[in-house]
Amino acid sequence: MVRQTKWRIAVLYGGDSSERDISIQTGEAVAAALDERGHYVRPVDVRNRSLNDLDRADCDLAFIAMHGAFGEDGQVQLLLETRDLPYTGSGVEASRLAMDKPAAKECFAAHGIPTPEYAALSEDSPHEEIRAAVVSMGFPQIVKPAREGSSIGVTVARSVLEATHGLKKCFELDNRALVERMIRGRELTVAILGRRTLPIIELIYPGPVFDERAKYTDGVTQHIINPKLLEGVAGEVRAVALRAHDALGCRDVSRVDMILAEDDTPFVLEVNTIPGMTPVSLVPDAARAAGIEFPELCETLARYALRRTAARKRNREPGVDGWAIDERP
User: Fold this and answer.
1) Long-range contacts of range 162-166, CB-CB < 8 Å, 24 or more positions apart?
2) Integer Cα distance of 218 and 221 in angstroms
3) Is 150 an active-site residue?
4) Hey, which end of the chain has fewer CB within 10 Å, N or C?
């Protein structure tokens, strides 16, 4: 199956999460790219979490292009595994961990990966506990839902009152939230493809955080590829990104978002296991800078999934990324 020229690929996109609109953009872009490479593509808008629509598709693999709940949190991955259908990206547990910000933070801490100080809170936490956590973090601080992406529900709080309002907004989206110390510095992101770190990108945008408008509106954010960094810092940034990817057990592709503090310490903010694949997205930009055009990038991810399945059928033990793949697309 891996050696065939054309594959039958179901592109799963859309869904019912708060990131549905972005998922549609990613899915449409991926479907067009795979079609350009000559594959048989069936776009599947996952409105029904039973995946009944997929059951009627005759396909070799599923390309997951769904952001947010059910797409990135391990749920759709588990359903695909019960169908024994190969799929792109990280597995069930890595997806769950990366999507759950407090759980990911615990994992980073356990592996000695620098990450901003934080406190995890739930909507039923006592008021005194919430206030103590907020005050201990200092200001400004970042308040965000535990399991949302695309900066949905994120607040930059400069006072207890603003943090309280931010938590209220979070609890409308999730029953848990994260309060994180805001570190001043340069925002960097590193995409990982297979076992390869792609060129570092620095993000220059208006406002205090890389919010939904900055991420998905063309022209709002500058992507500075291979930004000027002191000698040795770029290597450390890439190494920390790969450590974060590995600590969560990610495979195939991820995007590691970081703040490079004023003392050049790279602090990991989060790891995205299904990064955006829109015309203004970061991973396609990084891949292009490495000589990999978007259609080739999408085909490479499909190939990884098929190789992993072939390895399993040969009863070979998968590694961290599921298969000892050639890093070259």
Assistant:
1) 163/134, 164/130, 164/134
2) 7
3) yes
4) N
